[in-house]
Task: inverse folding
């Protein structure tokens, strides 16, 4: 055991970095305005500040407790990254449902315990749910199915 909980320390630090980056972007790219007349950058800056506070509330207590050193698992890192890239590349040419199915199946490969049958059931369920939420409920302008040829 280590004297510091590195898993929470690293996680909290990454959350703080994301929040700080988002806050920097919202404060430099948008007008903040005032509390009485909020500009387009006010709310993102506020949410970024909350994100920084959450990261600090995770990271600071990690300095006071022991925990194991995290081990980087490259298989999930690779497959989750590839699934996100596949979703981005497939969404517009083929549509929402094929993109979600491919993304879910590729992400399912990262888990050794999930079978192909389970991955396909999960993919279809997530695709139907996302279609109902984004296309029907929110009216997102993305093709459900498309054929690029």
Result:
């Amino acid at each position: 055991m280590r004297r510091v909980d590195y898993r929470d320390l690293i996680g909290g630090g990454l959350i703080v970095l994301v929040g700080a980056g988002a806050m920097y972007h919202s404060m430099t790219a948008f007008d903040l305005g005032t509390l009485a007349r909020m500009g387009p950058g006010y709310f993102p800056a506020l949410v970024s500040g909350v994100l920084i506070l959450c990261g600090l509330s995770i990271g600071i207590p990690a300095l006071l407790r022991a925990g194991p050193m995290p081990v980087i698992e490259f298989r999930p890192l690779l497959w989750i990254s590839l699934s996100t890239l596949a979703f981005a590349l497939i969404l517009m040419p083929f549509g929402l449902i094929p993109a979600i199915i491919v993304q879910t199946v590729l992400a399912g490969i990262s888990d050794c315990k999930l079978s192909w049958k389970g991955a396909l059931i999960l993919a279809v369920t997530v695709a139907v749910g996302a279609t109902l939420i984004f296309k029907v409920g929110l009216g997102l302008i993305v093709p459900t199915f498309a054929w690029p040829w």
